[in-house]
Fold this protein.
Amino acid sequence: MRTSASWVLVALTTIVSAHAKPADHSRAETQALDLAKRAIALRSVQGPGNQVPQVAELFKAALVAGGFAASDVTITPVDDTALLLARWKGLDPKLQPVVISGHMDVVEAKPSDWQRDPFTAVVENGMLYGRGASDMKLDDALAVAALIELKREGYKPHRDIVLAFSGDEETTMKTTEKLAAALSNAAMVLNVDGTGGQLDPDGKPQYFTWSGAEKTYADFELTVTSPGGHSSRPYEPNAINELSAALVRISEHRFAPELSELTRAYFIAAARYEKPEIATAMRAFAADPTDQKAIAVLTANPATIGKIGTTCVATMINGGHALNALPQRATANINCRIFPGHPRSQIMQELQQAAADPAVQFKDVSQGSVATDASPIRADVVGAINKALQVSYPGVPVFPTMSAGASDSMWFRNQHIPSYGVSPLFIKDSDRFSHGLNERIPIDDIKPSIAYLLSLFTELSK
């Protein structure tokens, strides 16, 4: 494994200069946008009417029409959702396969809250709008279109390429767990989830990051009970008041800041693109993770607080049973994103200490999550990512990061398969609305993304 200092030098080195006239992949670009639009129109949300299976059928039909054997593209129902597996057999069956990972489901979106129907794809002002535009139906469509383009060009992979799309990444990850178990012999996973490139406020590419680790997702349920009674005869403790006080104490708690090889490399490299105060804090923290001034600045910044350690926040609360009665029960959910290396039980214990009230009962209610270590920084993967990025964005720096969110990669890492977040999409901070209102992604991303994926897939399937 490289040292942090040498890694930063590698990360900032341009591997390839793209002086040649770019190849024409317009057919793949058109197909990717069309597939993304059609996928967005399918409401692939957990629960009644979940259309993940229809998304899978959409992609299967495209793959088969593009040259994949129908028998090599399978859709497996799982509860109300499904998973998709497509295998492109390589020339050497002894080589371990490379897996391309993604998910077909999206989080719920209420049309009444949006400016446009979230399940109708709209291209407007250079943006593709709709639920799943950035997370991650365009990424899925790009991967499918790129594989079809490679087939069309007559490419012959030496190792199997396996497309593995899950159907419940946003919820329980049962399909991902099944995929990871079925593909436990894989050489590596290339997860095209998320957005990897940063655009400045003017839309100019600044830098590109790939993810080699992610924080552990956790949910903890807090409960306080009391006998209740008539609201005209109030007494303490009141279950709502007691829980509220504990939540305030938890909100004031700060977990110890931490640094890893990946995050140190990220802070050193990304600092050059930040405002002076943030940049100074990033460099100082990379040099000394106990620097209190740097910690204060990075904690106050929503873009960096998740990269310097574990974070926990209240996300739901419920209490009482009648307007005119004292509450008999109050509950809340604390959602945590845990820095790699810590079990959930350790974080729950720290939250209990922060709550400082034995009447508050804690329960780990996490679903679809496992704690995993970072993937190794492999020279072949790093080189392929750099080469692919420079094909599309010559001169744009590339460096690693740790994802603050959860992805399918955790289940593959749980099977000891090196997994890397490698989405080609670039976006401005002001346009990051995954899971939020009016989700969107620039359509100018499509052309360079296809070129990037064609390079990446061929380089790592040799």
User: Anything to note?
Assistant: The first strand starts at residue 73 and ends at 78. The chain is about 35% helix and 20% strand. Confidence is low (pLDDT under 50) at residues 1-20. The longest helix spans residues 133-152.
